[in-house]
Amino acid sequence: MRHIISILLENEPGALSRVVGLFSARGYNIETLTVAPTEDPSLSRMTIVTVGSEDVIEQITKHLNRLVEVVKVIDLTDGPHIERELMLIKVRAVGKEREEMKRITDIFRGRIIDVSDKSYTIELTGDSSKLDAFIEATDRTAILETVRTGCSGVGRGERILKA
Amino acid sequence: MNANNTSAELLSPASNKQNQDGPEMIGAEILVKALHAEGVEYVWGYPGGSVLFIYDEIFKQDKFEHILVRHEQAAVHAADGYARATGNVGVALVTSGPGVTNAVTGIATAYMDSIPMVIITGNVPTAAIGEDAFQECDTVGITRPIVKHNFLVKDPADLALTLKKAFHIARTGRPGPVVVDIPKDVSFQKARFNYPDELVMRSYNPVNKGHSGQIRKAISLLLEAERPYIYTGGGVILSDSAPELKQFVDLLGYPVTNTLMGLGGFPGTDPRFLGMLGMHGTYEANMTMQHCDVLIAIGARFDDRVIGNPAHFSSVPRKIIHIDIDPSVISKRVKVDVPIVGDLKEVLVEMSAMIKAAGPLKNKSKLDAWWSQINEWRKKDCLSFDRDSEIVKPQYVVEKIWELTKGDAFVCSDVGQHQMWAAQFYKFDKPRRWINSGGLGTMGVGLPYAMGIKKAFPDSEVVTITGEGSIQMCIQELSTCKQYDTAIKIVSLNNRYLGMVRQWQELTYNKRYSSSYMDSLPDFVKLAESFGHVGMLIEKKSDVEPALREAFKMKDRTVFMDFQTDPTENVWPMVQAGKGITEMLLGSEEL
Question: If B233 and its partner were Cys, which of B121, B207, B246, B262 is the partner (CB 3.0–4.6 Å)?
Answer without folding.
Answer: B262
